[in-house]
Specification:
Catalytic activity: L-glutaminyl-[peptide chain release factor] + S-adenosyl-L-methionine = N(5)-methyl-L-glutaminyl-[peptide chain release factor] + S-adenosyl-L-homocysteine + H(+)
Number of strands: 9
Strand order of the largest sheet: 5-4-3-6-7-9-8
Pfam families: MTS, PrmC_N
CATH superfamily of the largest domain: Vaccinia Virus protein VP39
Largest sheet: 7 strands, mixed
Number of helices: 12
Strand content: 15-25%
InterPro entries: DNA_methylase_N6_adenine_CS, HemK-like, N5-glutamine_MTase, PrmC_N, RF_methyltr_PrmC, SAM-dependent_MTases_sf, Small_mtfrase_dom
Structural class: alpha/beta
Family: Belongs to the protein N5-glutamine methyltransferase family. PrmC subfamily.
Number of domains: 2
Helix content: 40-55%
Bound molecules: S-adenosylmethionine
CATH topology of the largest domain: Rossmann fold
Protein name: Release factor glutamine methyltransferase
Length: about 290
């Protein structure tokens, strides 16, 4: 961080210099990035950064300068830190895991409501678990559920296992290409949840650099129309569902109608949509008739 020679490196001064650098580099929401990184580095709350007279050590200053340089190159804050906050959890990440998004928290809420309607204990399967965000949250917040989670990426599963252990919960993780090979779960799932890859392949080059260059392509690419995984879930995971099972599937902006229609074509009953905190439809709800 460039501070004039002999200037005290107070949190406030360092922060202002960082915001200027990020602004000049055209990084979106420069204040948020600079504040979160400094807050995580120092342990100060974001509100305290400007007020106090906290001086950074030389080591902290060097580390922060590296982080700000990484953010200038559009590395996301969570990748720089190596972890992300999601509901009650601090989830470790690696190069094979998507950064869990705040909007996915509403998908978890839709699952929890359905668990509660079923008396608080049921068998939940999270397809494409990534860092384990959905599966670990459900296991933590509804401990009487039995939670299973799959991913095709062994590296993602390694991190998801660590995240479950850190949260002190049990999730049965399986490496699987979607629902393949899960013979012991046939007719055994009451709630199927997934945040599948859903970006149309042709749109990926136009995504923000934070997503395009840093999230794993396998976590984004939803095939030519962005709907390939929903077709696969409806056709391949049906055999795992118990009679009356329910599905909660995250969807991209404006895709809820398409996904519900595909579900109906495969014989599922459309039960509506769930909005996220920004009031955008974020999950579709379906069920399998008894
Ligand atoms: C959009 S990410 C969601 C990750 C996590 N559930 C979340 O909400 O943050 C999709 C996940 O599906 C996984 N995936 C991609 N293809 C898959 C497949 N054929 N079978 C299982 N998982 C797959 C990716 O590795 C990635 O972790």
């Amino acid at each position: 961080m460039v501070l004039a020679e002999g200037t005290r490196a107070t949190a406030r001064r360092v922060l202002c210099a960082a915001v200027r650098r990020l602004q000049e580099a055209g990084v979106p929401e420069p204040e948020a990035s600079a504040e979160i990184l400094l807050s995580e580095l120092t342990g100060l709350r974001r509100g305290e950064l400007y007020a106090g007279e906290f001086d950074l050590s030389r080591r902290q200053l060097e580390r922060y300068a590296e982080w700000i340089a990484a953010r200038e190159r559009r590395e996301p804050v969570q990748r720089i830190l190596g972890y992300a906050y999601f509901r009650n959890l601090r989830l470790q990440l690696n190069e094979e895991t998507l950064v869990p998004r705040p909007e996915t928290e509403s998908v978890v809420e839709a699952v929890l409501e359905r668990v509660d309607r079923r008396g608080g204990s049921c068998r939940v399967l999270d397809l494409g678990t990534g860092s384990g965000a959905i599966a670990v949250s459900v296991a933590q917040e509804r401990p009487r559920c039995r939670v299973y989670a799959t991913d095709v990426s062994e590296a993602a599963l390694r991190i998801a296992r660590l995240n479950a252990a850190a949260a002190g919960v049990e999730v049965e993780f399986r490496r699987a290409d979607l629902a393949a090979g899960l013979e012991d779960l046939v007719n055994g799932v009451d709630l199927l949840v997934s945040n599948p890859p859903y970006v149309p392949a042709g749109d990926i080059p136009r995504l923000m650099p934070e997503v395009r260059d840093w999230d794993p392509p396998r976590a984004l690419d939803g095939g030519p129309d962005g709907l390939a995984f929903y077709r696969r879930i409806f056709s391949e995971a049906g055999r795992l569902l118990a009679p009356g099972a329910e599905l909660v599937l995250e969807v991209g902006d404006g895709r809820e109608g398409d996904v519900l229609r595909i579900g109906e074509l495969y014989g599922y009953v459309a039960r509506g949509v769930r909005t996220d905190l920004g009031s955008t439809p974020r999950a579709v709800l379906l069920s399998r008739e008894v």
